Amino acid sequence: MNDIVVNAKNLSLTFETNDGPVHALSGIDLTIKKGEFVSFIGPSGCGKTTFLRVLADLEQPTSGEVTINGVSPEQARKSRAYGFVFQAAGLYPWRTIGGNIRLPLEIMGYSKADQTQRVNRVLELVDLAGFEKKFPWQLSGGMQQRASIARALAFDADILLMDEPFGALDEIVRDHLNEQLLVLWAKTQKTIGFVTHSIPEAVYLSTKIVVMSPRPGRIIDIIDSPLPAERPLDIRDTPEFLAVAHRVREGLRAGNAYDD
């Protein structure tokens, strides 16, 4: 059985703007296997989010090719191969938490009974059981983002694309959600693509870390994590963790990520 989920070959994307072309991605070669947790890290504007959006068929590459489960991003989108979690939770304030999670299921035509079963299951997964009838404004920022993750999981896509989902949260909440995300990943065995600006977050969460350069976005380094699957937060104090973080930092420096 083919376990390659994402396969990008010499992928480039240039945006045409009034001020001239903007080269967002250049020569991206990347393979992501089933069940991997892959983080993308690099400076703002390096193409991390653009690459995720290409996978989600929200942007079209200028050259090269990319397949999701062996088909085009458009075909993968139509077959509901992925769920997408954005930087902001994006919950509708007039809908309850259950209603927000139910929305894609309604659009996809699931029966009422199936919707209820799926909503209950994903609320349990993200530790929000009992909050179905609450409105977004009644939940903390972290809880809202967990509801957003539940919505992306509701139709049971194999791939979860996450664009800096915890970037706006404080460090204590972020640490807690990082722990919960690893538990969720272990339970569901999803393939996860995760965009972050945080070196500790990338190292803590990932089986593979993709380090990117400033625009045009190129891959500077791909790091296969040596860390064990079981990762308590204090693993961040170990020599193994610090060694990976150092390599990420060196990759960013080599790619001039710290230049103005």
Count the DSSP helices: 8
Largest sheet: 6 strands, mixed
User: How big a fraction of the residues is strand?
Assistant: 25-35%
Decide which structural class fits the backbone. Answer: alpha/beta
Relative helix content: 25-40%
**Topology as H/E string?**
EEEHEHEHHHEHEHEEH
At CATH level 2, the architecture of one domain is: 3-Layer(aba) Sandwich
Counted beta strands: 9
Q: Give the C-level CATH assignment of one domain.
A: Alpha Beta
Placed side by side, the strands forming the largest sheet appear as 5-6-7-3-8-9
CATH superfamily of one domain: P-loop containing nucleotide triphosphate hydrolases
CATH topology annotation of one domain: Rossmann fold
User: Which ranges are low-confidence, i.e. pLDDT below 50, for 5 or more consecutive residues?
Assistant: none
Using the CA coordinates, give the radius of gyration: 18 Å
